[in-house]
Design goal:
By secondary structure, the chain is an alpha+beta fold. The chain folds into three domains: 141 residues, RNA polymerase II/Efflux pump adaptor protein, barrel-sandwich hybrid domain (OB fold (Dihydrolipoamide Acetyltransferase, E2P)), CATH 2.40.50.100; 41 residues, E3-binding domain (Dihydrolipoamide Transferase, Irregular); 201 residues, Chloramphenicol acetyltransferase-like domain (Chloramphenicol Acetyltransferase). The protein contains ten helices and 21 strands.
Length: 458
């Protein structure tokens, strides 16, 4: 009896998953608990493990397919069963049903796509499906025969983040020729862009070397302006971008948000970070201003628990845990890893966790626990030379802190003397259903005090 591998549910709000990469191919033996494929949810990329020992006999969902949770995506044959066993005919598949005709060749959509990827003429493939239809297994068997015959065909797996794979398809870059700069040599989007640029440059040089100077030709008359702008590309609203769109649209639609800002003299805060950097031992985590901000926010949230809260089921829920999310920019969108129990950690421990989750986030290696349970969020755009901005509350949380860069400004010190100092603008966006302006103002006042006088944290 074939054993199904189903699309698992990784998180409460998950409705589907997108196939990122198959780690095993049809005909390969797998063991229980071994990773068979990678699936991308709205937040992270996870591996799907085999539910039993056996042989992978059929793949129902190709790379890029979005599959509802609970639906079969592949089948195994248990040890001792016929390796070519087919799944029950009543089981729905992910791809569109029916056949696709092209001349006298009849093949499934997955079979056509696989054949196109490897330059295979479907007329050379013998179909074993209903009425002679060519299936994916038929194409894979044909590929296997070509391998035996030592024809130049390769389907080797390349370690790359999902965004890099999508970009490689758009730019028509062969990932096997790209040198990865990520952890363990994993290919990043920047690596793909660099490879594409080098290919264009090499092509231009080759053309220049063999092409004699051309006689200038008369330029055509200018064309009339387009009624609509030319489209460079269309990016489907899927995966992480779809989640961002849905959640933040919901936040702006349902939560009455207001913003409160304060300017902070960052002299002592920056000096504290510099002291850590200059005295820290080799191999220790890098202490950053963001790490200090997490520490300061955790301290202030202890004093103002009304902001460490959420709006759920028409009620205000104040949390006892202080879990601070830090927005991290990625190629395909924004992800918010969480520093759990930030109020119980010292500055070096916070820095270590920030370094770890940021690296794993950009490499697509975050786990569910890394992005769940946040009670407050920090978004720091100071490193991008942004002076000030307002952020959108991350539901169901009560507030989010937006941090701009520290720039030199003329201010007046405590003795009413003019002073040039690095000043940053901090802006809290808050849900008015949960907190009021005075509560946010007192919270910001304590943030300002702690950043201007870091000794308060001791």
């Amino acid at each position: 009896m074939p054993i199904p591998i189903i699309m698992p549910k990784f998180e409460m709000a998950q409705e589907s998953g997108t196939i990122v990469r198959w780690l095993k191919q049809v005909g390969e033996t797998v063991t229980k608990g071994e990773a068979v494929l990678e699936v991308e949810t709205d937040k992270i990329t996870m591996e799907v493990e085999s539910p039993a020992d056996g042989v992978l006999t059929q793949i129902l969902a190709d790379v890029g397919a979005t599959v509802p949770i609970g639906q079969p995506i592949a089948y195994l044959a248990a040890p001792g069963e016929l390796a070519t066993a087919a799944p029950p005919s009543t089981t729905p598949t992910v791809q569109s049903q029916g056949t696709v005709s092209e001349g006298e060749v009849r093949a499934t959509p997955i079979a056509r796509k696989l054949a196109a990827e490897h330059g295979i003429d479907l007329k050379q493939v013998v179909g074993t499906g209903r009425d002679g239809q060519i299936t994916r297994q038929d194409v894979e068997a044909f590929i296997a025969r070509l391998r035996v015959q030592s024809q130049p065909l390769s389907v080797e797996k390349v370690a790359a983040v999902p965004a890099a794979r999508r970009l490689a398809r758009e730019l028509e870059v062969d990932l096997r020729s790209v040198q990865g700069s990520g952890p363990g040599g994993r290919i990043q989007s920047a690596d793909v862009e660099r490879a594409a640029a080098q290919r264009r440059e090499s092509g231009m040089q080759a053309i220049a070397a063999v092409t004699p100077p051309a006689t200038p030709e008369p330029q055509p008359a200018p064309q009339p302006a387009r009624a609509t702008p030319a489209v460079r590309r269309v990016v489907p609203l899927v995966g992480m971008r779809r989640t961002i769109a849905q959640r933040l649209t919901q936040s702006m639609r349902e939560a009455p948000q207001f913003n409160v800002s304060v300017d902070v003299n960052m002299s002592r805060a920056l000096s504290l970070v510099d002291d850590w950097r200059t005295t820290q031992q080799e191999g220790k985590p890098k202490v950053t201003l963001t790490a200090l901000l997490v520490k300061v926010c955790a301290w202030a949230l202890q004093r103002h628990p009304a902001l460490n809260a959420g709006f759920e089921n028409d009620a205000i829920v104040e949390w006892s845990d202080i879990n601070i999310g830090v927005a991290v920019a990625m190629d395909e969108g924004l992800i918010v890893p969480v520093i759990h129990h930030a109020d119980r950690l010292n500055l070096l421990e916070i820095a270590a966790r920030l370094n770890d989750i940021a690296a794993r986030g950009r490499a697509g290696q975050l786990q569910l626990a890394d992005v769940q349970g946040g009670t407050f969020t920090i978004s720091n755009l100071g490193m991008f030379a942004v002076d000030r901005f307002t952020a959108i509350v991350n539901p169901p949380q009560a507030a989010i802190l937006a941090v701009g860069r520290a720039t030199k400004r003329m201010i007046v010190d405590d003795r009413d003397q003019p002073l040039v100092a690095p000043v940053a603008t901090l802006t809290v966006s808050a849900d008015h259903r949960i907190v009021d302006g005075a509560q946010v103002g007192r919270f910001l006042s304590d943030l300002k005090q702690a950043l201007e006088h870091p000794g308060l944290l001791l």
